[in-house]
Write a structure and sequence with these properties.
Radius of gyration: 28 Å
Largest sheet: none
Helix content: 40-55%
Strand content: under 5%
Number of helices: 2
Distance between the termini: 54 Å
Shape: rod-shaped
Order of helices and strands: HH
């Protein structure tokens, strides 16, 4: 099992220099939760970036002057 001192050393949120502070268990817990949340969000963003998304839409423009309709296709 992981010792309490090793777990406390993970505390990212110390406000004053390391030699003047004492790490807390709650700070270490918050640091671990924050690091896991950042890794999860990074993974989700990377997955979204690497996913190919293809959308196809066709919209017909109704011309009011009776001439031929101009139809544009935006292909991405």
């Amino acid at each position: 099992m992981v010792s309490t001192n090793k777990l406390k050393s993970v505390d990212f949120y110390r406000k004053i220099p390391r030699d003047l502070t004492e790490a807390s268990l709650s700070g270490a817990g918050l640091s671990i939760v924050a690091a896991l949340a950042m890794m999860f969000l990074f993974g989700m963003e990377l997955n979204n970036y690497l996913t190919v998304n293809t959308s196809t839409t066709v919209i017909v423009d109704n011309s009011s002057d009776g001439e031929f309709l101009r139809i544009d296709f935006n292909i991405r």
